[in-house]
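B., you asked whether I could sanity-check this one before it goes into the benchmark set. Here's the sequence:
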Amino acid sequence: MNVIEKRDFIHRYLHQVKEPVIDEIYNKMRALLNESLIEESEDDIKKGNVITHDALKKEVLNWRHTK
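And here's what the prediction gave me:
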């Protein structure tokens, strides 16, 4: 079964899964996604794709004025 078929299978039958299993799946997915974000962040640091705290603060302040 390829990835698309697995996703379709999961989507098709997910409504039949009881809460304890849903909680387990949810926690595993969150952990995997968090790990992926950490790896991506570490890769950005290695590549020098970083921003200073002051630059980030200025950028965030600019977002507030766009409302």
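One thing to flag: Residues 29 and 35 are 10 Å apart (CA to CA). Otherwise nothing jumped out at me.
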